[in-house]
Amino acid sequence: MMNDVRYMAPSTLDEAAGALAAANGAGRILAGGTDLLVQMRAGVVSPGVIIDVKKIAEMTTIEAVGGGFRIGAAVSGAVVGEHAALRQAWPGVVEAINLIGSKQIQGRASAGGNLCNASPAADSVPALVAAAATVTIHGPKGRREVPVEKIHAGPGRTTLERGEIVVSFTLPPRAPGSADAYLRLIPRTEMDIAVVGCGVNLTVQGGTCTSARVGLGAVAPTVLLVEDAAQALIGSRLDDKALDAAAAACRAVCKPINDKRGTIAYRTKIAGVLLKRATAIALERAGRH
Amino acid sequence: MSNGSYKWIGTRPNRPDGADKVTGRARFGADFNMPGQLIGKVLRSPHAHARIRSIDTSAAAALPGVKAVVTAQDFPDQPNVVVPTGEMQVNLRDVTRNVMAREKALYEGHAVAAVAATTEAVARQALALIKVDYEVLPHVIDVEAAMKDDAPVLHDHLITEGVKPAPDKASNIAKRMDNVKGDVEAGFRQAEVVIERRYATQPVHQGYIEPHATLASAAEDGQVQIWSTTQGHFQVRGFCSRLLGVEASQIRVTPSEIGGGFGGKTVVYLEPVAMRLSQKTGKPVKMVMSREEVFRASGPAPGGTVAVKIGARRDGRIVAAECTVALQAGAFPGSPLGPACWTSFACYDIDNIKVVGFDVVSNRPKVAAYRAPGAPISAWAVESTLDILAQELGMDPIDLRLKNAAKKGTKTSYGPTFDTIGFVETLEAVKSSAHYRSPVKPGMARGVAAGFWFNVGADSSAAAHVAEDGTVTVISGNPDIGGSRASLALMAAEELGVDYDKVRPVIADTSSIGFNFVTGGSRVTFATGLAVVNSVKDMIRELKVRAAKTWKVDPEAVVWENGHARPAGSNVGEFEPLSLADLAASAGRTGGPINGHAQLNAQGAGPGFGVHVVDLAVDRDTGIVTIDRYTAAQDVGTAIHPSYVEGQLQGGVVQGVGWALNEEYIYNAKGKLDNPGFLDYRMPVASDLPMIETILVEVPNPHHPYGVRGVGEVPIVPPLAAVGNAVARATGVRMTDLPMSPPRLSAALDAATPRMAAE
Amino acid sequence: MAKTHVSTTINGEPVEFLCDPTQSLLDVLRDNLGLTGSKEGCGSGDCGACSVTLDNRLVCSCLILAPEAEGHSIRTIEGMAQGDQLHPLQQKFVELAALQCGICTPGFLVASKALLDRNPDPTETEIRYWLAGNLCRCTGYDKIIRAVMEVAADMREAAR
């Protein structure tokens, strides 16, 4: 029953975290609402308190900090996409966030919501994992910083504790010759959930890859950081042999399911295909920096 | 291309309902409300197949705000009688069971009870309080599984029709249909090349963006008003009358604007339920389906299997053709099996044809019509097989079709002999088109396919009224689903010789105009257009009488030209022409109001043929198909309003492309639909497509004063095979099962190229 | 259920309404305020028929809680024509037959206007991707895309 649902829009994090903790598991954070409202309508969740965080300044702004960026967890994809400096430094992260849903969805949906919805197919997450983004969490016990890949615990489940709110993402400073890219496979050209998503973040110096991170989505219960793929790329000149090895590493970590969006065989194959294609895009971008 | 003698026909004026539809003013199904209305909601079966032992509605009925609960007990049972609806036939015994499950729930989403309450929230709470005692039964989803001897049987009474001797036990095969021309065995003996393949398609939904919605208000004196989004408000009246035992004239159904139908809104789901709830409560009851309900409970097009065998001489002449079609009917008999069989080889002049069809029930929603019902399924198979034949013979695919094209005088396998048709002209138009003459771009491939639809005539009524200032209203009774008001007004203006904007078309409710069969079968511009033209002719006859009275001459001495009555010749006398306005102004002195009426059963609907060409690329690593260029050519009779004719072609093409590439119903092991929403039921979006080029080939239908042929349905027939043929030519891999979705196409490519799979 | 009071601006006019906290903005527009031009095709943000702008940002009104409208400015299809003048997009949609049944049309118009307000010179591809969140099942999109392209060209011409 939805009899006693309360809506609140606090302007401070303490107030929001307090209300969330007090709701005893029946509270839901409302950022863009593009997942929450669908789930409420389907009867999947019936919150007692809906805590709208869009009046909290820290969660709704983008700042350049210490050579990197801090992106409020509730900033909409559309606003992220309009941030020229962020787009320049982290094109892969921005395109991943901008792939969440239609233009209408982009007007509301946020990276924080995408992360906390905890879908293994969340588009923003593989790119944020590849970017080595950290997450600032505010809770009843104070604040903590966590690598983004530590948030997902399984489909629909996170490692957040009661009363904790994801406040922002921090993207590190960029070394010269660095760039990222995100690709996903969907059956149509838009409006689908990723069958596989792959984020690649590279630094290339003198033609040699000196650092790399690879994030893979929709191929396991959580988004994966694929260290073996990164290792295959690091130290190479990103030649076919290195790419084949990295693609094989991606395929090797896949533990997907057969479902309405793809088969185990298909997802596994595509993980390798996207690794190669995303790496090529990141390399091309790195050359321009 | 239109006949130059027309003033209005072939022009592209703004549609009469344009402003309403671009401002949000137009009222669609869910936009109607009445003071004091209740909200109705349906409880649906969670099981694919279950016996309903009992339903306890007491707790729901006791909930404050709940005003009525209904189950099948509230609907009288119906006799085993088949009635036509749109292009489909339905059995009243089955219709009442589809509206509300009786002995068994036959598919997930099948309605088992409904409530009317003061708010939607209360109605939802009430549904949760209804206790249904189900005995869950084994279920069967797919057509071939349902045909097996050991399949769970849906209906104990269902004995296969069309088999001699009649089987002695019930099965899921409702009907066998045989359709023979010539001697197919002898034909195959003459063949130098024989191609044989088996194909399969999945059910697809019409995908209208507006969910079903209705508002019913039953008064204490037994009269009922219904507002409904429907392709046929007279059918709504008829079904509600039959299912609830209320005389038809007591029920007045007003059609709302309709947000798409494509055949899917020719049947009733909510209307009888809302009416019954309104009867029980004495209040208006509004019911709107959610998108999920639309997918789980309304009728899609069937999926099916088609086995095709075609034999030809080396010169391309087809000497024998055979196919076996099995279609899913859903939970009750009545797939579009006939059309699927009859259209299969209708494009071609073949001496020896044999078609066998099976109508098969399974635990899915009862199928409904969808744009050329059945035809895309058999065309997918036949046109793919012809492409294989063309490749085998090294022939251009258009030339192969030209060599065998049906023309005037060709006798079809299902009986009729074609009158004037435009298939050859359409093939030639494609052959000489800029698209077909252009080289195929590197990395692309080109596919060609053809398609056929009969088009329908049937019953229409119309009236034309002159207002006191000489402007005209034409009244008919078919919901305008894609611009038909404009085409009707154009024909009326042409006939009357007045400006288009002096003619206002109106769609009347069931009590305000005579019977009109559904908006379906591509019949409205043809049949209702004919009724409108005839009503205008009737009005002109009256106008001439009034002019004759004014001039004191014989009516035969008056002619009607360019919107004026004129003397037939100089011997009649010297009179100034009388305009509509003149005659309207003097009507009170010459006999009162000036109106015209017509009613008819339109015969001679001209069949239509389409030929489509597509250029596309296949990403071999991912199985993703990208359409680069698409041209649809069609024999459209006369294009009354060419923009809306082009629109029919373009819309049909894109629905066909969706059918080919991504659309399908996905069921889980429990027989529950896994993709009941637009996220995972993947209809094409704007970024999936290029512009859709059209070629309107105007071969007038001799059985219509303006040469009209239906145009709406043909365009969904060719795209499936056009895309498949291009995919085959791009990859060397012939897909036989739809959809050619990326995982499926990728798997087929990998299977054909083991090296890639290992990569 | 206690009602929530919301003050907002709709099509430039101040509006107050009472709603359930879980009611969607779309439901309030349609059921409480009688603005039925915004349509519900899916209720899950997948069809775009309920498109409106919130502070000039294109959104699906089915995915916004009505209380979220507090203090914001909403524009719907009903606010698109100025007086008795159709917006050029509305006019062009009618002229080019960019609608058949018309149920998706309000959403396409609101979305198209949001695009042209932001980008007066979009390519065909940009238009197609911008409008990918609006489903049309009748037209195959062709005439819709052409209408938006023509209006963009007309508006650029007029601005010169």
Write structural notes for this entry.
- Chain B: This is Xanthine dehydrogenase family protein molybdopterin-binding subunit.
- Chain B: Residues 23-138 form the Aldehyde oxidase/xanthine dehydrogenase a/b hammerhead domain.
- The complex is a heterotrimer of chains A (289), B (759) and C (160).
- Chain A is an alpha+beta fold.
- Chain A has 11 helices and 14 strands.
- Chain A has helices at residues 13-22, 36-41, 77-81, 84-89, 91-98, 103-106, 111-116, 124-130, 227-233, 240-253, 264-288, and strands at residues 6-8, 27-30, 49-52, 62-65, 68-72, 134-139, 142-147, 152-154, 157-158, 165-171, 178-185, 196-205, 208-217, 224-225.
- The longest helix of chain A is centred in the C-terminal third of the chain and has 25 residues, at 264-288.
- Chain A starts with 5 loop residues before the first strand and ends with a helix.
- The mean pLDDT of chain A is 96.
- Chain B has 3 domains: 18-25 and 457-602, Aldehyde oxidase/xanthine dehydrogenase, molybdopterin binding domain (Aldehyde Oxidoreductase, domain 4, 2-Layer Sandwich), CATH 3.30.365.10; 32-137 and 210-259 and 265-297, Aldehyde oxidase/xanthine dehydrogenase, a/b hammerhead (Aldehyde Oxidoreductase, domain 3, Alpha-Beta Complex), CATH 3.90.1170; 304-455 and 606-758, 2-Layer Sandwich (Aldehyde Oxidoreductase, domain 4).
- In chain B, the strands form 7 sheets. Chain B has a 7-stranded mixed sheet with strand order 3-7-1-14-11-12-13, sandwiched between helices. In chain B, strands 9-17-16-15-10 form a 5-stranded mixed sheet.
- In chain B, a hairpin with a 5-residue loop joins β15 and β16.
- In chain B, α7 packs across α8, α10 runs parallel beside α11 and α11 packs parallel to α20 (719-731).
- Chain B starts with 17 loop residues before the first helix and ends with a helix.
- The model of chain B has no long low-confidence stretch (mean pLDDT 96).
- The radius of gyration of chain C is 16 Å and the shape is globular.
- Chain C is built from 5 helices and 5 strands.
- Helices cover 34% and strands 16% of the residues of chain C.
- The model of chain C has no long low-confidence stretch (mean pLDDT 97).
- The chains are: A alpha+beta (289), B alpha+beta (759), C alpha+beta (160).
- Chains B and C meet through α1 and α19 of B and α2, α3, α4 and α5 of C.
